Amino acid sequence: MDLSRAVRPKMKILLISYYFPPFNTVGAVRPGKLAKYLERRGHDVHVLTAAEPPFPKGLELEIATEYVHTVHAWSINAPIHWLLGGRAQTSRSGFQALTKGRNWLQRAGYWYKTLVHWPDAEVGWANASIRLGKELLRKEEFDLIYVSAPSFSGLRVGSQLSRYSTVPWVAEFRDLWAANHAYSYPAWRRWIERKWERSLLRSASALVTVSAPLAASLQHHGKPVWEIRNGFDPDDIDKTNRESNAKTGELRIVYTGSVYFKYHDVDTFCQGLKGFVALGGNAVVEVVGRNIEPLWSSAIRHQIENHFCIRPVVPRADAISMQCSADVLLMFLWQGGSNGVYTTKLFEYAGAQREVLAVGSHSSDVAAMVLESQLGRVASNAEEVTQHLLQWSKEKACTGVVAHAANAGGDMTRDAQFSRLEANLEKLIR
């Protein structure tokens, strides 16, 4: 008998997120871990999510499938998928890689999204989710509706379901919407979305986001704003078979995730790596992820592509295994003066307990976190990249490993963050 279900749970929560395991995309990680944490703490969690999003599977589902309610919906991007060879091909390679060299298609894609994605590509899922959500609310007595965005269409779902049922709702922003640091649409659309966002959030009981700067940008909504950062799950590390990073003489550098054109300084890294190789250094850069074409193009421009091993998206357990067996973990700091971009990658790297090379400005708040938490080193120019790689390479040649501070990162676990969220939610319900 499951004793956690034998007593009345502390809270009964309807968690709404378009992204959710087993579909392998970074947007599914936090909602999946939150559901796992809340269920372990004795809360009753039901999830409302998408049935077949355009992502490969490969992320572990850590709650019972009977509590995951999926919605099939029409795809607003079907014409684009058709043009690019099908949805499977698009999800594997990414839009930027598939349209490289076809500027007309990139421009068409931009205007298609500008005029049709309101507020994003998941509009078809949102309408169907509202219908299923109403059914769930008629069957179950929920204490709270919790929406994790993006997808920002989920905010529509949460707002309407709360109004339908009078159950309070909380909006979580893993990334901001109208105030997003990478907002790429015209000013007229941003003006409309700001008003839309304000209208939807008027009925929310509280807002959640992942850093203090992002929390400050949400204060104007006049709601309680809770800063609940990302983190790593020690269970993921415990399941990993750590290979020895001393097996070869070369410096093994690993990067997992996407690369964002214009916001990640890939040229500084590649130029620095080229300098390291010119001085006799030996390294291999293993890259797995979606939309990594800017990094690969930079490697070709700097004539160091033979030092790169590029792979498509892999199951998340494999990506974490790669992180844990690396000598150095590569990270690109967000360019453009925006603080508060505390990515999931930063915390996973802390959990892997390997040296981090953060490429970007020393003045960013994430650079300060890397240094203060003893996660690794920061390089703002190619010469610094070269010098850091030389020092790590010499260390490995002498000792066989690249050493890392034993307590680096402090307590960056998801449990530490989610426990604060749990306390706030319980207080809100009371």
**How many angstroms separate the termini?**
30 Å
Query: What would you report as the Rg, rounded to the nearest angstrom?
Result: 22 Å
| Biggest beta sheet attributes | 7 strands, parallel
- The coarse overall form would be globular
Q: Please give the order of strands in the largest beta sheet.
A: 3-2-1-4-5-6-7
What share of residues are in beta strands?
A: 5-15%
Low-confidence region ranges = 1-7
Number of helices: 18
Q: What would the average pLDDT be, to the nearest integer? A: 89
Query: Strand pairing plus helix content: what structural class?
Result: alpha/beta
Fraction of residues in H or I helices: 40-55%
Structure summary, number of beta strands: 13
List keywords for this structure.
430 residues; alpha/beta; seven-stranded parallel sheet; six-stranded parallel sheet; 18 helices; 13 strands; 44% helix; globular; disordered N terminus
Task: Describe the overall structure.
By secondary structure, the chain is an alpha/beta fold. It has helices at 3-6, 26-40, 78-83, 87-93, 95-98, 103-116, 123-139, 153-165, 187-201, 212-218, 234-238, 266-278, 293-301, 316-324, 344-352, 365-372, 382-399, 414-429, and strands spanning 12-16, 44-50, 68-71, 144-149, 169-173, 206-209, 225-227, 251-256, 283-288, 308-311, 328-332, 355-359, 376-379. A seven-stranded parallel beta sheet has the order 3-2-1-4-5-6-7, with helices on both faces. It has a six-stranded parallel beta sheet with strand order 10-9-8-11-12-13, with helices on both faces. The longest helix is centred in the C-terminal third of the chain and has 18 residues, at 382-399. The model is unreliable at 1-7 (pLDDT under 50).
